[in-house]
Amino acid sequence: MYQIIDGKKIAQEIKEELRETAAELKARGKTFVLAVIQVGNDPASTVYVNNKKKACAYVGIESLSYELPQEATEEELLKLVRQLNEDSGVDGILVQLPLPEQIDEDKVLLAISPEKDVDGFHPENVGNLSIGRPGFVSCTPAGVIQLLKRSGIEIEGKECVVLGRSNIVGKPMAMLLLRENGTVTVCHSKTRHLKEITKRADILVVAVGKPRFVDASYVKEGAVVIDVGIHRNAENKLCGDVDFDSVAPHASAITPVPGGVGPMTVAMLMSNCVKKSLQ
C-alpha cells in the first residue's frame, strides 16, 4: 500500500512553526514586510496572490499589495521594483508570474535586489545555491525537500531523477537533491530512452508541464513520486504531470494534485521571509 504525502498537512505544520518564530521575533522588535506586486487580473494569479497574503497574515508577516493594470508598461513595473528596492521598510519583493506579454519577465526578476528576492529566482541566489552559499532558495523545490524529509523519506544515497529542467523548478530541484547527497539525473524533452532512466529512480520528481504525462511505465516499483505539475483537465478538474491512478499502486509514496506540492510553495515563501528576519 502506498503512502499519500499530504502537502496540506505538512505545509500547515511549517506555518505553525513559523508563526511561533515570527511572534518571538516580533517581541524582540524584528518584523518582516513583504511587497506583493500583481500586474493585471488573471484569475489564477489572483488566487495565488490571495493565498500568499492569507499565509502572511496567519504567520505574522506584514504584506503590502501593489496592483498594476493589465496594460501597465515594463518601465512602470521596473520603476516600482526600483522604489521598493530602495525602501528600507520593505524586506522582500514578490512579483506574481506570469506577466503580460509586453513585459520581459527576465528583466523584471533581474531588477529585484537579491537581498529582497524571496522567490529565489535572481541569478545571484541561484548561484549561491549551486555553490552551497546561503541565500534565498526557490520555494517549490525547497518545499519538495521538506515533503520528503517530513515524510521520513531518506534522500542520501538514493537515485533521484528530475523530469524537467526549468530555472524555477527543475534545475534548483536537482541542486537541492545533490545538497542532500542524492545521486541526481536531470531529464528533459531531448533525453533519449527516457523511461529507462526514470525507472531507475528511487525518487522521481516530475515537473514536465504536461498533464498526466508520467504513467506506470515510467516508474520503478516502490519509487517515491513527487508531482510538481498542476493543470485543469477536460472536466475542469485539477490534475498533475503524473497519472495518479496508474502510478500510485506501484509507488511507495506519492503526492496528490491538488494537496501535494502546491501548498508547500506558499509555506516555503513564508519560510524565506522568516529566515531573513532571523539574520
Mean pLDDT equals 96
Question: Mind describing the biggest β-sheet?
Answer: 6 strands, parallel
Which word captures the global form? globular
CATH homologous superfamily descriptor of the largest domain: NAD(P)-binding Rossmann-like Domain
Number of domains: 2
Roughly how many Å apart are the termini?
43 Å
CATH topology of the largest domain: Rossmann fold
Describe the structure.
With 279 residues, this protein is α/β, with parallel strands linked by helices. The protein folds into 2 domains: 28-115, Leucine Dehydrogenase, chain A, domain 1 (Rossmann fold, 3-Layer(aba) Sandwich); 139-261, Rossmann fold (3-Layer(aba) Sandwich), CATH 3.40.50.720. It has 10 helices and 11 strands. It has helices spanning 7-27, 43-59, 74-86, 105-111, 123-131, 139-150, 170-179, 194-198, 244-247, 262-278, and strands spanning 3-4, 33-39, 62-68, 92-95, 159-163, 183-187, 203-206, 223-227, 231-232, 238-239, 251-254. The strands form 3 sheets. It has a 6-stranded parallel β-sheet with strand order 1-11-8-7-5-6. Strands 3-2-4 form a 3-stranded parallel β-sheet, with helices on both faces. A two-stranded antiparallel sheet has the order 9-10. The longest helix has 21 residues, at 7-27. The model has no long low-confidence stretch (mean pLDDT 96).
What's the helix and strand layout?
Layout: E1 3-4, H1 7-27, E2 33-39, H2 43-59, E3 62-68, H3 74-86, E4 92-95, H4 105-111, H5 123-131, H6 139-150, E5 159-163, H7 170-179, E6 183-187, H8 194-198, E7 203-206, E8 223-227, E9 231-232, E10 238-239, H9 244-247, E11 251-254, H10 262-278
Parallel strand pairs: 1-11, 2-3, 2-4, 5-6, 5-7, 7-8, 8-11
Antiparallel strand pairs: 9-10
Helix pairs in contact: 1-10, 2-10, 6-7, 6-10
